[in-house]
Amino acid sequence: MSGPDYGIEQPNGARVYNALIGGKDNYEADRRVQFMLVELCPSLPRTLWRARDFVESTARRLVVTGVRQFVDLGAGFPRDGDALAQLRVLAPDSTLVSLDNDVLVNAHGRALLPPRTVVVDADYTNGVELTKALDCELDLTKPVAVILASVLDHLARPTDLLETLGAILVPDSYLVITHLGSDLLSDPTAVAAVFEGAGMPLFPRDRVELRALLDGFDVQKVDVVPADSLVPNAEPLAVATTATISSYGAVARILGPVESSQREKESRI
User: Fold this and answer.
1) 228-232: which pairs have CB atoms within 8 A and are 24 or more residues apart?
2) What is the per-residue pLDDT across 108-127, written as a single tens digit (0 to 9) for each?
């Protein structure tokens, strides 16, 4: 994956997402893409906020289970009250890592993220680079929670990243995922075309496809579910139906060798 465009005349992925959630770290080129996306999918800003809620509530649950290492891949511009900020308050002893290959995002992260958050400039699509970065900043002999918010749906081959993470993370590590659903968007082809035209390829997937990506992991809860349905005490939607939300949320646990072997045997039956 090539590095992001930092010029203000061309849209930039992190800045477009920032515009979609009402942030200020964006320019006219980014807002033009935002307007086109919202015209196609009016609920997209609400969807992204609900996806953030899902990530934050899941991170809090993982703290309760004892996880004390968290890394946010493709972190984007930090916002008040985001997952890493909440984790620093909830579990002050946690190791927090924000990883992105956008120098502007990382500059904002160093200035605004909670104290002792490690900001890493690395490309998560490069398996060797990602492994080296995580090995430097985390204790990979202990569980890690990896946040993949709006990451896998921008990868044509997300299995490469998932395989890298599965290989370097110990059992009882977790992946926290949000992913736009092709079966939830009213016109996924048109939405993907806008992202593609802005230099940000998008690959929405339906529930079955997303579940298939996580084969080999222990998918938590009952299934991959719409992101808003896992958020406790969430703000009511203007229209109280999951059809207004176009993202899935998933939590997947890294299996131990015995569990993996047992699952492989069961799949052969």
Assistant:
1) 228/50, 228/53, 228/54, 230/54, 230/57, 230/58, 231/50, 231/53, 231/54, 231/57, 232/57
2) 999 999 999 999 999 999 99
What tokens were used for 97?
A: 């890592």
* DSSP codes joined into one string, 123-135: -TTSHHHHHHHHH
pLDDT digits (tens, 9 = 90+) for 186-215: 999 999 999 999 889 999 999 899 999 999
Length of the chain: 269
Q: Is 212 left (phi over 0), alpha (psi -120 to 50) or beta?
A: alpha
Q: For residues 200 and 45, give the distance between their C-alpha atoms in angstroms, rounded to a whole number.
A: 17
Domains of the chain: 13-268 (3.40.50.150)
Percentages of the chain per state (helix, strand, coil), in multiples of 5: 45, 15, 40
Are 96 and 73 in contact by the 8 Å Cβ rule? The answer is: no
Question: Residue 18: which H helix or E strand, with range?
Answer: helix 13-20
